[in-house]
């Protein structure tokens, strides 16, 4: 199976800068998939490096456009958690593909990150679910439109 | 959803001893699921701590017995990779449950482990697949009887 | 040997919050010293949790007061890197003690942190150097007044 | 300051193999020193990859020969913990150099390793101590001949 990965930024890719601030760094997903010894063909597209709270409809149109344009049937979108549910809903009109949106509450570069687990969750969803748009977070797979982020607890419900 | 986790040992739980040897330590799965912020009810059963190369039919009968006995519909079995496929086949006669067997090529206590990814893969399979027995390794979900370990490459195919 | 550790915050103790921002979390030094199997008597005092760019003379007076007051001869101060050199100079009038100031460019909670190495550097300096005030960073031990932070490169020279 | 590093193996460099055993892998010291942003000139010499319990006098003669031959005044030897004290004593006849022997109880490739701390300890000792041979372990600096490994507790005393 081939998986096309589109990265958009978010906490998943956050790094700590020399200036003592967090910034969205180079995407980590390729190294995480390699460490997991994933036996899929992976293609990668780094679309943007944004905090998802700053994404607007133009950004979401671009993400939708890129998901539609790829000839891959299985698309993984990595995304900040703040507006992940909005983007997932924005992708719902796409047909003929399995699309899974995931991210992380703790950056992959931190020792206690949820990132590798979430990627495993997403990769399983890509191969077990019918065409549609899904969110993979908090150990759960949600169809787009059926998840919301509980900001106080830092989980998707 | 409730997930009952049965741990049997394997590389996943390996630790490095004061004597400079490896041993199968206390199960890591609870801490990995917590770090992943998993929103499922988890029950844990530490059945044994064995290198799976040493498991015999008595051990496999015990694992099958425990999987059957639990009232949970969703069962995750953590297991060494050497005979994971044998145990999965041994569980195939169990009906009415989703059973996913996973493990790791690198111990969870090592920095480059595939363990958290594999657990994510398994947790997604538990909630997306019909009743049956599956192996979650190498980024893939295999029905029992359809996977083998490629020992030279360290992947399941 | 007894080491009294005074923590003041800085990148060393940074954590990533549920709101996707960084904050100075609970001090990490005790767990790092335990992991290193350090055979010293350690006493800990969490004085403040501040970004060192925000420390003023009142804060530095308080740090100096606490270093002076402890009956320990060997004092380790963990501190943000931005004004670590200023605080070290502020402590120079203290006599009869070995005082080492250290911190980290990358938070200890990140996988590629310099924190454990820097703590090792500081703990060795505490036991090998005469009374005085020192900075332990970038693999080097500097007497107070002889180090500056090269902000562009993220190292002390 | 230039530091010449001679690596001999030991738990520090242990990796977990595809066969589920531990082996002594490529030396980790260069990447640990880089992560620590060490501002010294480092030269590296990978002499052997041995469990120190298997080192004999021929091996120790070779280590002594290499330490003597290098034109560096500051030499760091990474070594297994079982016979680290023997090797340090074997080096005592060397004059005109600061020689520090260190290693780790937990491999650097494990998440809870003492390796980066121990390297920091050793690097500080190299620059603060007079010519001689030292062991840097358990948060302490011991002159050669004054340390022994407490095998039951996994610490040097």
TrEMBL record, chains A, B, C, D:
Binding site for substrate: 52, 81-82
Gene3D superfamilies the UniProt entry points to: L-asparaginase, N-terminal domain (3.40.50.1170)
Domain L-asparaginase N-terminal: 2-152
PROSITE patterns hit by this protein: ASN_GLN_ASE_3
GO molecular function: asparaginase activity
InterPro entries given in the database record: Asp/glu_Ase-like_sf, Asparaginase/glutaminase-like, L-asparaginase_N, L-asparaginase_N_sf
Name assigned to this protein: L-asparaginase N-terminal domain-containing protein
Species per Swiss-Prot/TrEMBL record: Lentzea aerocolonigenes
Origin organism lineage: Bacteria, Bacillati, Actinomycetota, Actinomycetes, Pseudonocardiales
